[in-house]
Amino acid sequence: MATIGRDRKDAALDAIAELIHERAEDIAAANAADVATATAAGERFALVDRLTLTPARIAGLSAAVRAIRALPDPVGETVRESRLDNGLELTKVRVPLGVIAIIYEARPNVTVDAAALCVKSGNACILRGSRMAVNTNAALLAVVREALAAAGLPADAVQSLDPDRQALAELIADPHAADVVIPRGGEQLKAFLLENSRIPVLAAAGGNCHVYIDAAADPAKAIPIAVNAKVDRPSACNAAETLLVHRERADLVPELREALESAGVEVLGDEAAWATEFLDMKIGLRVVDSLDEALDHIATYGTSHSEAIVTEDEAAAERFVREVDAAAVYVNASTRFTDGGEYGMGAEIGISTNRLHARGPVGLEELTTTKYVVRGDGQIR
Amino acid sequence: MATIGRDRKDAALDAIAELIHERAEDIAAANAADVATATAAGERFALVDRLTLTPARIAGLSAAVRAIRALPDPVGETVRESRLDNGLELTKVRVPLGVIAIIYEARPNVTVDAAALCVKSGNACILRGSRMAVNTNAALLAVVREALAAAGLPADAVQSLDPDRQALAELIADPHAADVVIPRGGEQLKAFLLENSRIPVLAAAGGNCHVYIDAAADPAKAIPIAVNAKVDRPSACNAAETLLVHRERADLVPELREALESAGVEVLGDEAAWATEFLDMKIGLRVVDSLDEALDHIATYGTSHSEAIVTEDEAAAERFVREVDAAAVYVNASTRFTDGGEYGMGAEIGISTNRLHARGPVGLEELTTTKYVVRGDGQIR
């Protein structure tokens, strides 16, 4: 896969998009079986809903593949270029990472998105979905592999792993089984991988995110940002979990509380809330005496994911940006923007709070490593 | 450390260089004690030699610190900058990695180099040297910490770990003890860390490097490159361990053999040699039938470190560059160039064959991670 040019990879992506369209009925039938099993098992509505592929959602799978096809190929891009004093021509170019294992829950779209992102970036991948989506994933995997073969690419570039715990445990125990593991989904899964994997894991290890409303905050920005950061998608790792309000803006608390509560959010004022990542319609609220106290709070309870300050004071904003240690720091904007699509990366396979390799959204570029290519005419040391 | 500006970090580096100069006699006395112990214990010459600090070598320690001081500060550098459609101003900036653990053998210069590189890049570090150099390292560490304090930086930014196995085992078992572990030194140490560390390890996992002399090789380049790649420093991980010679250039073998043997190298033709990283004045030699066979050999026996082709055939060179999977690939140049200094990175703390984060020499830039800074005026999703 690593040496295949853009044209052929894009042809394979076209074939995947086309074949999903052609096989829409087969895919829907396989999905109906999974949905029936999940419903009979009494799974909660949110899970069954995510699992379900409507005709519109199947069309959406093809559209996502075409969108990834349209992105630039990161492979071969020159990152650094220089001519050394001894005449050597040094270039540092992007090459695929190798084998990427993606572990995810009952979201069939991840099967297609992950395969497409890996094909585009020249990587092989191992997809490990949920048992709940086993028929859907098998149908989608068959389509992807058939399309790869039709485009002259190795079908084995996209493989699946049996959705049982033992197979996963064996995979992540072997440091040579893949070059990186990327979890998509719940905090429990991520914690399990971070604790047990011998393969490096790219993941957001928690998302206890804060919005700090500074003494110099503009209420017309502060309240919409606070509400949006919580309610836009409470289950997302970039959702805010605690609001910090400077004492000089404590006058905003009733209005904030009102805005949140009318959006269906429960506001919790006790210390126990601070360390909790609710991923739900709940938020902690704390009044702090100073920017220092806000920075201390974030350093203590934050998970280095996404942190926001609302302020019109340039010096306070700069201090917050410099001193908060996180993948993404916002001034006068919602934490919800931490996302590959929002950042103009086209698509993402996940978000990382690792300090090594990739910090923030993981897009095509983050699915590459580099190679130094050095051309000479006989140079020796 | 992360928020300290370049001026103060450079002042601390000046203070380290100056204090090494002032305390040269104390350092020499501490070193003499270590050298006496090592000599009495019958340690081999190479080890004792590396351990010994002559007045010139002590002056060299100061010079190395001043050279690191002169390098640009990687912290705060903007890696990416864009204005999103919604008006958000996105920047991706370099920030320090955090805490770097450096594990090394009886080379006192590493104590000073590593501390200086970490100070320059805004990182804290844990230095774990060899028991053999315990007095020398203590003297050097005292100088570094005194200089940091004199420059108003926290002395605790540079700490040491007791040189016993248990302390090291405990350190690397705790994923929160440091952000990355960098070994400097022997293959055994690296293998131990790669096998046991719960903290990511940046290292060259073996250096079974090849020089392939193609059918279209120029002998005037091939023979000097082959000899240099072996003899310039046989113990280095970028030294060549096997020569591959295309059958159409088998006429060069007697001359190659003669050149190597007269430089003191033992040339081994048997298959057993191919998987061996000699790190010594020995080299494997294999005649191959084709470029394909050379590529297969490198894929089978190589360790993805440094690989070279000698050829005047542009198509063969391009195929080699594209298909060989290694941190560094050379055309008509010695594998010995894989080095931060040679690559114009100023200094290196080691070489990595990891696929994640840093592949190749690890310099100041590789000791950083990034942070997204997003500035808005009230944007929500």
Biggest sheet of chain A, in brief? 6 strands, parallel
Say how many strands of chain A there are.
Answer: 15
CATH architecture of the largest domain in chain A: 3-Layer(aba) Sandwich
- Spatial sequence of strands, sheet with the most strands of chain A: 9-10-8-7-11-12
| Average pLDDT, all residues of chain A | 95
Structural class of chain A: alpha/beta
What would you report as the Rg of chain A, rounded to the nearest angstrom? 23 Å
Apparent shape of chain A: globular
Report the top-level CATH class of the largest domain in chain A. Alpha Beta
Question: What does the secondary structure layout of this molecule look like, with pairings?
Answer:
The structure is a homodimer of 381-residue chains.
Chain A: H1 6-22, H2 24-40, H3 45-51, H4 55-69, E1 78-83, E2 89-96, E3 99-104, H5 108-120, E4 124-128, H6 134-150, E5 158-160, H7 165-173, E6 180-184, H8 187-196, E7 209-213, H9 219-231, E8 240-246, H10 253-262, E9 266-268, E10 282-288, H11 291-301, E11 306-310, H12 314-323, E12 328-333, E13 350-352, E14 360-362, E15 368-379
Pick out its properties.
Aldehyde Dehydrogenase, Chain A, domain 1, globular, alpha/beta, homodimer, Aldehyde Dehydrogenase, Chain A, domain 2, four-stranded parallel β-sheet, six-stranded parallel β-sheet
